[in-house]
Amino acid sequence: MSSTTTQQGPQETRVFNPPEAFVAQATVSGMDGYNALCAEAEADYEGFWARLANEHLSWQTPFTRTLNEDDAPFYKWFEGGKLNVSYNCLDRNLTNGNADKTAIIFEADDGKSVNVSYTELHEKVCKFANGLKSRGIKKGDRVIIYMSMSVEGVAAMQACARIGATHSVVFGGFSAKSLQERIIDAGAVAVITADEQLRGGKQLPLKAIVDEALALGGCDTIKDVIVYQRTGGNVGFTEGRDIWLHDLVADQSADCEPEWVDAEHPLFILYTSGSTGTPKGVQHSSGGYLLWAALTMKWSFDIKPGDVYWCTADIGWVTGHSYIAYGPTAVGATQVIFEGVPTYPNAGRFWDTVAKHKVSIFYTAPTAIRSLIKASDVDPKVHPKNYDLSSLRLLGTVGEPINPEAWMWYYTQVGGERCPIVDTFWQTETGGHMITPLPGVTPMVPGSCTLPLPGIMAAIVDEAGVDVPNGQGGILVVKRPWPSMIRTIWNNPDRFKTSYFPDELGGKMYLAGDGAIRNKDTGYFTITGRIDDVLNVSGHRMGTMEIESALVANPLVAEAAVVGRPDDTTGESICAFVVLKQARPTGDDAKKLALELRNWVGKEIGPIAKPKEIRFGDNLPKTRSGKIMRRLLRVLAKGETITQDVSTLENPAILEQLKEAS
Ligand code: ATP
Ligand code: MG
Q1: Is 423 labelled as part of a ligand binding site?
Q2: Which positions ≥6 away from 340 have C-beta within 8 Å?
Q3: 107, 316, 571, 578: which sits with the fewest CB atoms below 10 Å from its CB?
Q4: Distance from the CA of 489 to the center of ligand 2, in angstroms?
Q5: Cross-strand pairs, 560
Q6: Contact 152, 106 (CB under 8 A)
Q7: Ligand 1 atom 12: residue of nearest CA
Q8: pLDDT for res 366
Q9: ipTM of the modeled complex
Q10: Dihedral sign, CA of 487, 438, 468, 562?
Q11: Res. 278 pLDDT band, cuts 50 70 90
C-alpha cells in the first residue's frame, strides 16, 4: 500500500452555486441544513442512525441495538430488527397514495414504452415470488439473475428479496466462463434469465450462454433455470430444469406474504467491476443497505413525488441495485428503465428519451458523457441543444472521476446551467453514495465530489493511518462503520479483512482503495485515482486523474488514461493513452500530435507532468461497466504481455492496437 497523489492538488477554481430556486425547495436545504445533520451524527452516532432507520423504513419487529462492533470489522446494524425489503419497496406504496402511480416507465430498445404502476409491479413480484417458492427456492438460497434491463429483471430481484433468497445479478454482457465462475462462487440454486436481449437493434443471446456456462461444469447446485421470453428467439430447453417465466407464474396467487428477515440477512452478493483485480463477491445486508438506498434518493437526488427519475446504469452493477431496483421504489418514485444503448438509433438517444418522458433527474456515468461529447462533435445533429431538455432539474454522475471539462459540458449543454450536478463518489462495497455535493446545499467545483454525506466519516490518511492536512494527498478511508457498508466478501472473510480493514491502518478503518486530496480552503474531496495508480516521477507524487483531465481539456482529446512505468532516470515515467475526437493518427501525424499534447500538459500542470510517451487508440480498454482498466495499460506501457484477469474486459481487441507507439 502506498499513498497517492500530488502535493499541490487540483488547480480547479471554478465554483457554481446551486440555484436559489432549487435550494428553496430542497430536502436538505442550505449549508445550515447539512451542518445540522452532520452535527447530529457527531453528537450521537448511533442515535442518528436509529432515528433515520425508524423514520425511513418499516420494521416488522423493531431493532433493539443500533450498532454492534464486538466482532469488528464484521459490524452488525439494527440487531433484533426484522423487515422485508420488497415489503418496504412495494407494499408500502399500495397504502400511501402511490398505488396507481407509475413505478416504471420501460423504454424498450426499439423506442416503444410501457408504464407499470406500483399495484402492477407488486402483483408481478408476488406471483414471481410464489413461483420461486413453488420450485422449492427458499430463504438463504442464492439465485443468479442474468438478464438485460427489463421490468422482469427488477421484479426478479424484488421477488428474491420477498422470499429471503439472496440474489447475485450478473451483467448480461458477461461470458459463459464469467457466469460459471460466479454461479460456483455463490453456490446458487437457480438462474433467472431471458431467451435473448435486445440491444441496439440486435438480438443477443442470454439463455444460450447460461446453457454454455452450466455445461462448463461445476454448477451442480443449479436446479432451476427460469426463462423470461423477451424476443421469442429459438432457445434450447432442458426438461425438468428449465421453465418459462410465464408458465411459472401462470397459476400463482397475486398475494405473497413477505418473509421477515433479520436486518443483517444478506440481500445480495454482487461482484465488483474488476478494474483493479479479480472481482470480489461483495455481500450486502437488508436493513442497513435499504436505509441508505432510500435516504440517498432523498438527500442526494432530492427526489420528490412529481419527479421522473432516470438512472442509465445496468442492474448488473451496484448502481442498478441501489438506484434502480431498490432506492427509487423504496421512496415511491417514478423511474425510466432503459433497455437499449446510448448510441441507438443514434447518439441522441439519451436526450430524446429525456424529452419524451420529461425526465427531471438524470444519472449517468462519465464514460457515457465523454462518448456523447465526442459523438456530438462528429455529428452536430445529436448535440443536446437539439432536444427539449427543459424538464431536467438535477443531474448526477457516478463510476469514475469526471474530468472538469466533461463536467462543464454536462452542466452547460445538458443542464442548461440550471441543474445542480451531484458527482457521487461511492463503490459496490459502500452500498450507496458516500461523498457528493447535496444539490440544494453545496457550491460545486467541476471534478470534485466535494463533501461526505452526513454520518459518513470520510477522511484522508497516510500509510500509517494518520490524518494528513488539507492540501496534501493521501489514502481515502472511512473511520466509522455505516449502515450500508459491505458485510463480508462471500466465502472469503479473510480477503474482506485484508482488502478493506488492513492491519497497517489499525484494522478498523475502511480502506476505499482510492487516493484523494482535500482542498486547503474548502475541505472538498477530489478523487485522484486508485491507490495502485500512483505516479512517482523524480520523487514527485502525482494522481493519474490530474494529468488525464489536463489531456481531456485539450479540444482534440476525447479520452485519456495515464499510467506509470519504471524508468532508469526518473524512477517512473508517464505513459499516456489517448483517444482523439478525430480519427486515430499514425506515423508523422501521431508524432506531431504527441508533441503538441506533451507541451499542452506541460503548460497546464508543469513540465514534470509531461508524458514521456503518448499512444493513440480508437478506444481504451474498459470494463463492461465502462471504466478504464489502467492495470492492463500498465502492462502494455512496460511492453509486457497481459497475463492478468481480463474476464470483465469489454473490448479485448483494443489491447493489440495499444501495444506499441502509433
Ligand atoms: P474493482 O473493485 O473490482 O477493482 P471497481 O472498483 O471499478 O472494481 P466499483 O465498485 O464498480 O468497482 O467502482 C467503485 C470505484 O469507482 C471507486 O472506488 C472509484 O475508483 C470509482 N468511482 C465511482 N464513483 C466515482 C466518482 N464520483 N468520482 C471518482 N471516482 C469514482
Ligand atoms: Mg473497487
Answers
A1: yes
A2: 107, 108, 109, 198, 199, 200, 349
A3: 571
A4: 12
A5: 578
A6: no
A7: 273
A8: 96
A9: 0.99
A10: positive
A11: confident
Q: What is the pTM of this model?
A: 0.95
**Letter for the amino acid at 551?**
L
Cell numbers that stand for 345 in this block: 438509433
Alpha carbon 247 to chain centroid distance?
A: 34
206's grid cell = 442470454
> What is the CB neighbour count within 10 angstroms for residue 661?
13
Q: What is the pLDDT of residue 10?
A: 57
Q: Is 552 annotated as a binding residue?
A: yes
Would you say residue 442 has pLDDT above 80?
yes
Distance 75 CA to ligand 1 centre (A): 23
Lowest mean pLDDT among 140-144, 541-545, 624-628: 541-545
399 CA from centroid of ligand 1 (Å): 5
Q: 540-542 and 535-537 as β-strands: parallel, antiparallel, unpaired?
A: antiparallel
Annotated binding residue at 425? yes
- pLDDT tens digits for range 321-335: 999 999 999 999 999
Is residue 547 within 8 Å of residue 611, measured between CB atoms?
yes
Ligand 1: residue whose CA is nearest its atom 26: 425
The pLDDT value given to residue 405: 94
What sign does the dihedral 449-454-456-462 (CA atoms) show? positive
Binding site membership of 440 for ligand 1 (Cβ less than 6 Å): no
- Read off the DSSP letter of residue 470: T
Percent of the chain exceeding pLDDT 70 equals: 98
Ligand 1 atom closest to Cα of 276? 4
Determine the Cα–Cα distance for residues 612 and 600; give it in Å rounded to an integer: 13
**Where does residue 538 rank: exposed (0-12), middle (13-18), buried (19+ CB within 10 A)?**
exposed
- Residue from 170, 272, 319, 427 to probe ligand 1 pocket by mutation (most atoms less than 8 Å from CB): 427
